[in-house]
Design a protein that fits this description.
Helices cover 37% and strands 21% of the residues. The chain is of the alpha/beta class and 530 residues long. It folds into two domains: 340 residues, Rossmann fold, CATH 3.40.50.1100; 167 residues, Biosynthetic Threonine Deaminase, domain 3, CATH 3.40.1020. The strands form three sheets. Strands 11, 12, 13, 14, 15, 16, 17, 18 and 19 form a nine-stranded antiparallel β-sheet that branches. The chain has a six-stranded mixed β-sheet with strand order 1-2-10-7-8-9, sandwiched between helices. Strands 5-4-3-6 form a four-stranded parallel β-sheet, with helices on both faces. The longest helix has 15 residues.
């Protein structure tokens, strides 16, 4: 028995050792053997096509359609199926941010084993619930620490006291199990592929899939895709050994690994041709694209491969590409953040702060001068100065469209600045000084979500009779937009007359309700001019 085989077959040994090497033929043999085990737990997943304008054929391996809605069942089951004899009486010990835990739980239940899984306290509730649902009485969850590293350290300490440790990625049999993804692709007859974009966290899936794809498609290029702020594998390859990242972005929580594995680093060093990093915005937009094209909802790490393809493939081109939709175990509460980052229709949300004089008619003038061909998807403004105003407008824009807007504003005499990173914009902290408001009326408006609707309301309803002193609106993807606004008037009589004449429904808006003084007291204290 070689040192390498001894290491991977005795998982109670926690040290990876020094100078460990991998054997390509041995891994390929283990991939073949994995065929005999993994399909006790699941069935092959489909390979579907996705069309993107200007790019070649794209095939998507749908690992989100699997027993645990992610690919991790393959590696964990393959490894745990090898537990025999007295070791079956010991608990299986694992650490996971979510999907590996579900695979271990499923395998434990099918194989009649007991598992103790250490998970970060930050693990999404949907993943924790799924672990318990898949494992039932066979699994125990221990929540510890703020990240995968904390859970991994606790799991290793627990295994020292007696247990069979099953690593999430740095294990020959786990890697071989994940490689059955590529085996199914090869057997599908859809190849050959000239490029594959594989997301990388710890590197288990990329190491196995890339090894098998290279065996059958010798000319294929393998592009490793990592998230910005979590590119531990590229760092390891550059350094010649695994290195620990000081900072770790956890938006793509399934790939948030601070340090690449010893074994996966060695394999990926040989089988990955190039690395590309993708931003959270690019990942979010890939999630949007999966949904719009395949009605497939991916967790952030599951969409990283497609994000890498869109970024790298658009520059380098390809004839036939493979991506893996790795998993759909997403916390529902994360969708709003993803929608924000993804932008609108593939365009990024861009926020611009514009200076205008604080007087009646200037806001409407700005809409007419600069926004005639744009849809406002965010409008944040509160009066804080009697002379000057700094409203913030959000748009869904490409880089070229943003440049054109800024140029148009400058040409027409407006001072503008980007506000995407402003804390007040990101947290919607809209300042407003009630002492500067003159006889305000607060209105809650539902208007039809179409280009020009806001301008139409200002044109048809306000008509220059009042000054806009507060506006809070944000596009939500619905057919109806909702806004809270305030108009100020010269006299209380003018305010009362306007409110009495304001139609409940009108051209472009579904309904308009005037807030009572009690409802608006948060902005209108007793000493205000109203």
């Amino acid at each position: 028995m070689s040192w390498f085989r001894f290491f991977v077959s005795s998982e109670r040994i926690l040290s990876h050792g020094v100078g460990m090497t991998w054997d390509k033929a041995e891994l390929e043999n283990e991939i073949l053997l994995a065929r005999q085990r993994v399909y006790r737990a699941g069935t092959p997943t489909p390979l579907e096509t996705l069309e993107l304008d200007g790019l070649g054929e794209i095939y998507v391996k749908r690992e989100d359609i699997s027993p645990i809605k992610a690919y991790k069942w393959r590696g964990s089951f393959n490894r745990m199926a090898l537990i025999e004899g007295e070791d079956r009486k010991l608990p299986v010990i694992a650490a996971s941010a979510g999907n590996h835990a579900q695979g271990v739980a499923l395998a434990a239940k099918i194989l009649g084993l007991k598992a103790r899984i250490y998970m970060p306290t930050t693990t999404p509730a949907v993943k924790r619930s799924a672990v318990l649902e898949k494992g039932g009485d066979s699994v125990e969850i221990v929540l510890i620490g703020d990240g995968y590293d904390d859970a991994l350290a606790a799991a290793k300490e627990s295994a020292k006291k007696g247990g069979v440790f099953v690593h999430a990625y740095d294990d020959l049999h786990v890697i071989a199990g994940q490689a059955t993804i590529a085996d199914e692709v090869v057997l599908s007859g859809k190849g050959p592929f000239d490029v594959a974009y594989l997301q990388i966290g710890g590197g288990g899936m990329a190491a196995g899939v890339a090894t098998w794809m290279r065996k059958f498609y010798p000319g294929i290029r393998i592009i490793g895709v990592e998230g910005e702020g979590q590119a531990s594998m590229a760092a390891a390859v550059n350094a010649g050994k695994p290195v620990r990242l000081d900072e770790l972005d956890i938006f793509c929580d399934g790939t948030a690994v601070r340090q690449a594995g010893e074994l996966t680093h060695q394999i990926c060093s040989e089988v990955i041709d190039e690395f590309v990093t993708v931003s959270n915005e690019e990942v979010s937009d890939a999630i949007r694209l999966y949904w719009e094209s395949l009605r497939c909802l991916q967790e952030p790490s599951g969409a990283m491969g497609l994000a890498g393809l869109r970024k790298h493939g658009a520059q380098h081109g390809f004839s036939r590409a493979l991506v893996v939709a790795c998993g759909a175990n997403i916390d529902f509460g994360q969708l709003s953040r993803i929608a924000d980052l993804a932008g609108i229709g593939g365009r990024r949300r861009r926020h611009v702060r514009i200076n205008i004089p604080e007087k009646s008619g200037t806001m409407l003038g700005l809409f007419r001068d600069a926004f005639e061909d744009l849809s406002v998807i965010d409008f944040q403004y509160g009066k804080t100065d009697p002379e000057q105003a700094w409203p913030v407008f959000g748009f869904g824009l490409t880089d070229q469209e943003l440049e054109a807007l800024l140029s148009r504003l400058k040409t027409r005499g407006y001072e503008a600045a980007m506000a995407d990173e402003s804390a007040s914009v990101r947290f919607r902290a809209i300042p407003c000084e009630p002492r500067f408001l003159s006889h305000p009326a607060f209105l809650e408006i539902d208007f039809y979500e179409r280009p020009g609707a806001l301008r139409g309301f200002l044109d048809d309803v306000v008509r220059g009779e009042a000054n806009l002193c507060y506006f809070n609106y944000r596009y939500s993807g619905e057919r109806i937009g909702r806004a809270l606004i305030a108009l100020e008037f010269g006299t209380d009589a003018h305010r009362s007359r306007f409110c009495e004449d304001l139609p409940f429904k009108g051209s472009g808006y579904r309904q308009c309700r005037i807030l009572s003084e009690e409802e608006a007291d948060w902005l209108v204290p007793e000493n205000s001019a109203s």
